[in-house]
């Protein structure tokens, strides 16, 4: 926990009085080490500053939205220019059409786009379109996969009733037999299959999509008339300049986008193939701020940088440099560290660490050295990072491995995550 006289501690105390739980959602730090700050002051490039003035190299990238660096001058200039002309208006600006054209030109499976604000908006809209298209109810999704915070998909059941979760069937990611069994259970009521671009569940090793699994999902949808949905909210533009499953040659009917498509400015999208156009036009979805022009201007500039720069190649190379360096230093320290997931969105966990006490110790030691990581969620790189930043992270990790090696035998259990050792993973 931050010091008693710290601004962070003071803000937490004030927040407790006026915000339920003091903070909520994925940016609450209740399941992070006690020394993690809750409140931040600013971000610039690859770095963030907490409210007490401490600077960190940020490998969370705002949980994904930061792709080209915080306060990117080109993207933010486009946003500010449009603010001066108009943002939330009685109707959309021409930028909405331009952005839809740009995204359709980028995503090979898509012929149309619709815009909203959050990833949950996009995934919920995808589910609605699939049910409108098929006139069926059942949806298949992988156990443990995260598709947002609406009642139908939230990972926390408080306030959720049985009917909110009705007509959902679950399979194991990358398990063809499990997927086929779920499809058989759905029978002639299957509306859609939701697929994460790779297995990026919290607390457990990540896994690349198995081609046989992806092809089976496509084959089931083709055979039954259901729609295949790839949820690219988290991974979009971090694995490919197209839908993530384009890398393995499997095209969905619908894809959902968000996080970094405007480099942190608030906008998300649902994209679809021609087969789902009529259904998409038939549903009623809207929001007072879904048509804002300034985030669309930021998105257009972000997509220009996606098309015209080598950002993807650079963050991939930096991610590989980080992965190789961590593996070398962990081995030298005699520690068994697992790094899974794509190098641009990796997760690291330690062997023999059921309650994450090693992970918490390592993350805290990195934080103390000015490197912000996460002990159980996948992380991100941004194009504002350079080799010097990766070297800083590796030097800090080497010191953190030393701390962990010297103190591993005496590490106290992480009580706040004790449910993990009881099988919640």
- Amount of helix: 25-40%
User: What's the gyration radius in Å?
Assistant: 22 Å
The number of strands is: 13
**Average pLDDT level:** 96
**Number of structurally distinct domains:** 2
Low-pLDDT windows of residues: none
Cofactor: pyridoxal 5'-phosphate
Family: Belongs to the class-III pyridoxal-phosphate-dependent aminotransferase family.
InterPro entries: Aminotrans_3, Aminotrans_3_PPA_site, PyrdxlP-dep_Trfase, PyrdxlP-dep_Trfase_major, PyrdxlP-dep_Trfase_small
Keywords: Pyridoxal phosphate
Brief characterization of the structure:
GO terms for molecular function: pyridoxal phosphate binding; transaminase activity. This protein is an alpha/beta fold and 425 residues long.
């Amino acid at each position: 926990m931050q010091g008693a006289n710290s601004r962070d501690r003071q803000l937490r105390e004030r927040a407790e009085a006026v915000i339920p739980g003091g903070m909520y959602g994925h940016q609450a730090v209740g399941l992070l080490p006690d020394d993690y700050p809750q409140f931040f002051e600013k971000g610039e490039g690859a770095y963030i500053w907490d409210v007490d003035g401490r600077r960190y190299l940020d490998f969370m990238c705002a949980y994904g939205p930061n792709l080209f660096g915080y306060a990117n001058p080109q993207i933010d200039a486009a946003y500010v220019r449009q603010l001066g002309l108009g943002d939330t208006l009685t109707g959309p600006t021409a930028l909405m059409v331009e952005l839809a054209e740009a995204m359709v030109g980028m995503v090979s499976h898509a012929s149309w786009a619709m815009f909203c604000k959050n990833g949950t908006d996009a995934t919920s809209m995808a589910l609605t379109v699939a049910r409108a298209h098929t006139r069926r109810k059942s949806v298949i999704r992988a156990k443990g996969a995260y598709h947002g915070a609406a009642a139908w998909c939230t990972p926390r059941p408080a306030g959720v009733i049985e009917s909110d979760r009705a007509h959902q069937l679950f399979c194991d990611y990358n398990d063809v037999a499990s997927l086929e069994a779920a499809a058989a259970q759905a029978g002639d009521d299957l509306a859609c299959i939701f697929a994460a671009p790779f297995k990026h569940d919290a607390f457990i090793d990540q896994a690349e999509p198995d081609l046989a699994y992806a092809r089976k999902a496509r084959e089931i949808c083709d055979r039954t008339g259901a729609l295949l949905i790839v949820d690219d909210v988290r991974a979009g533009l971090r694995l490919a300049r197209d839908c993530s499953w384009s890398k393995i040659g499997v095209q969905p009917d619908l894809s959902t986008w968000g996080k970094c498509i405007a480099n942190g400015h608030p906008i998300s999208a649902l994209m679809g193939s021609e087969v789902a156009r009529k259904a998409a036009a038939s549903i009623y979805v809207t929001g007072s701020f879904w048509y804002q022009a300034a985030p669309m201007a930021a998105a257009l500039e972000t997509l220009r940088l996606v098309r015209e720069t080598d950002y993807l190649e650079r963050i991939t190379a930096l991610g590989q440099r980080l992965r190789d360096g961590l593996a070398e230093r962990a081995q030298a320290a005699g520690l068994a560290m697992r790094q899974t997931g794509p190098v641009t969105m990796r997760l690291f966990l330690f062997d023999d660490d059921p309650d994450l006490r090693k992970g918490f110790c390592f993350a805290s030691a990195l934080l103390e050295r000015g490197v912000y990581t996460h002990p159980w969620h996948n992380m991100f790189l941004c194009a504002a990072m350079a080799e010097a930043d990766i070297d800083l992270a590796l030097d800090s990790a080497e010191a953190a491995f030393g701390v962990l090696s010297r103190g591993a035998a005496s590490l106290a259990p992480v009580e706040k995550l004790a449910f993990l050792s009881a099988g919640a993973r």
